[in-house]
C-alpha cells in the first residue's frame, strides 16, 4: 500500500464519519494545530487614597489613623498629616480599586466610631 493510498483511505474514513453532516469540510483541518492568540492582560487601575482636612479632627488622631491603616511610621504619618493640615489633603498610598475602597471604608468607619469628622476618599491615580 502506498502513502497515497493510505492517505486516501483516511480521507474516505473521515468522509464516511461525516456522512449527512453539511459542514463536514469544516471539521477536518488536515491535522494542523493553530494556537489562538492569548488576550493581553492590562495591569489593574490604581487609586490614590486621600485623607481630607477638616477643622475638628485632632492632628494626633490623623497620625494614629495613618499609622494604623497605612502602616506608616510616626515620622511619615506626621509628614502626611502636615500635608493634610496645610494643603487640605494628603495622599496615604496608591492601591488597586478593591484595596483602596476597603481602606477608605475602614478609615471613615473608625473616624465615625471615634466621633471625628475625618474623611478619607479615593481617586484614580
Query: What coarse outline follows from CA principal-axis ratios?
Result: elongated
Biggest beta sheet attributes: 3 strands, antiparallel
- What fold name goes in the CATH topology slot of the largest domain? Ribosomal Protein L30, Chain: A
Report the average pLDDT across residues.
86
Radius of gyration: 32 Å
Level-1 CATH class name of the largest domain: Alpha Beta
Q: How do the SSEs run, as a string of H and E?
A: HHEHHEHE
How many individual helices?
Answer: 5
Judged by helices, strands and strand pairing, the structural class is alpha+beta
Secondary-structure arrangement, i.e. CATH architecture of the largest domain: 2-Layer Sandwich
Describe the structure.
The protein has 125 residues and is an alpha+beta fold. The protein folds into two domains: 1-35; 46-124, 2-Layer Sandwich (Ribosomal Protein L30, Chain: A). 50% of the residues lie in helices and 17% in strands. It contains five helices and three strands. The chain has helices at residues 3-17, 24-27, 59-70, 74-87, 97-113, and strands spanning 46-52, 89-96, 119-124. It has a three-stranded antiparallel beta sheet.
Task: Please outline what is shown here.
This protein is an alpha+beta fold. Helices cover 50% and strands 17% of the residues. The protein has a three-stranded antiparallel beta sheet with strand order 2-1-3.
